[in-house]
Specification:
Blueprint (H helix, E strand, L loop, with lengths): L2 H11 L5 H20 L4 H8 L2 H19 L3 H12 L3 H44 L15 H54 L1
Helix pairs in contact: 1-2, 1-4, 4-5, 4-7, 5-6, 5-7, 6-7
């Protein structure tokens, strides 16, 4: 593959990238060819050394997606970055997808528990009032045995407040954990890219 064929193929594969970024990348690869030919290497030798345009494009797109996720944090951006990294090979599929899925599952579970605690606590707080309004539909939840209806209602409401506050604290904590995990994920994806680039240089 000569210089023109290589750059044409690379430009085609990178067509979804912003034009300015794409042209900067193509300019860099043109420079690789220029420097290589000045050293007496043929275009075919240089294109072979640079690697298959498809693999190069995957690497460039993965790097672009990680930068995008870092500059404009969002769930969509990090998912795109993860999928781009996973597309680079089986190693990435195992060492990126599995840890991410496990941690995300834990975070989502804790968020759900937090919201269940909040709504469950609110229900407990309202339960005594609802039981007075709808005595045939709802029964007062007895927390402390052998207590009066008033005391039982008080204990129920206090328990509801405690559960609600616990749920709020858990959700707030998970918001901070999610932000921390997002930043950690960006670092992990960057490290993964550096490992891949290091392997390619070694080859």
């Amino acid at each position: 593959m000569n210089k023109d064929e290589y750059l044409k193929e690379l430009r085609k594969l990178l067509r979804k990238l912003p034009k300015e970024d794409r042209e900067d990348i193509i300019s860099d690869y043109e420079e690789h060819f220029t420097i290589g030919m000045e050293k007496g290497r043929t275009e075919e030798e240089i294109s072979k050394a640079l690697g298959n345009p498809k693999n190069v494009a995957k690497q460039i797109k993965a790097d672009h997606m990680v930068k995008k996720a870092e500059d404009k944090p969002s769930v969509g951006s990090i998912i795109e970055a993860i999928l781009a990294i996973m597309g680079l090979g089986l190693f990435n599929l195992i060492f990126v997808a599995v840890p991410v899925l496990v941690v995300v599952a834990i975070i989502i579970t804790l968020f759900v528990i937090g919201f269940v605690m909040i709504f469950g606590g609110i229900y407990w707080v309202l339960l005594p009032l609802l039981s007075f309004i709808f005595p045939k539909l709802l029964l007062t939840l007895s927390i402390v045995p052998n207590t009066s209806v008033l005391m039982d209602s008080l204990f129920t409401m206090l328990g509801g407040f405690a559960v609600t506050i616990g749920g709020i604290l858990l959700v707030v904590a998970m918001v901070y954990v999610s932000k921390w995990f997002y930043e950690l994920m960006i670092r992990y994806l960057k490290l993964n890219l550096r490992i891949i680039e290091g392997r390619k240089r070694d080859v």
